[in-house]
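Lay summary. Proteins are chains of building blocks that fold into shapes, and those shapes determine what they do. In this project we predict the shape from the chain. Here is one chain we studied, written as its sequence of building blocks.
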Amino acid sequence: MESSNSNLSRRGFLATTASAAALTLAGAGCMKEQESESVAKGGKIPVGLQIYSVRKEAEKDLPGVLAQVAKMGYQGVEFAGYYGHEAKDIRKMLDSNGLVCCGTHTQMEDLADNKLAATLEFNKILGNKYVIVPWLEPAKTNPKETWLGHAKRLNVLAGKLKPQGMWVGYHAHQHDFDDLGGTTPWDIIASNTSRDVIMQLDLGNCMDGGGDPVMYLKRYPGRAVTIHLKEHSATNPKAMIGEGDVKWGEIFKLIRAAGTTQWYIIEEEKDAVPPLQGAEISLQNLKKLRT
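And here is the predicted shape, written in a compact code that computers can read:
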């Protein structure tokens, strides 16, 4: 369950992950009923950082990185690998810095029936309840049937995790918005899974793939229980949050109206500046946009 080499491609890196949690949520119905008290009362949605954003630094010194992330003002972190650390040690790092594990990118293979119990047990210790599948292969043949099969498995997993107060979800990449004869992989997953499956939209990835995140938030309201905040710009590949084409005001309005989003998660992969500096700039830019 641990990464033996963090100098991996995004796909390879993600293939090393596993996570879950055992915190029980009140009301096991639709996600609208699972809002945290703070968000339900109109409080600000907390902000986490996807640690993949600072992966090289985390590989060298995860405790130090978590301390810096907390000092910046982040309230949580989402993992995509554990850098050889045991769950109990990571939990101590989180607790000592006042951070919450707000999700983990967990490869589908680590959610296979013969690995599921170990994967969930590892992450019960982390206190995480959002188990997000980060990548599913684009099918070369029979793509629609393949994506329908993925949707079916996600429904099965949602049924297994829900009694334990956990959620399974799927994270958006560019290929999830490819045209499949009038539909897309994202539409197939979203429209063939229950509301107990989180659709973790990534704003930048969606737009990079030719999709419109505003349209998808409207089409599948309430499904973005956690959402990745990432900038997209048609003219500036180094644009950070607030410096590109994302319609932030409209995005925030839709999210607030749906009332189900529990975490904003920043993922900054452009390396326009040193990664830790980029993480801090992204958070400060987000704060300006939300005021």
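What the prediction tells us: Residues 232 and 246 are 6 Å apart (CA to CA).
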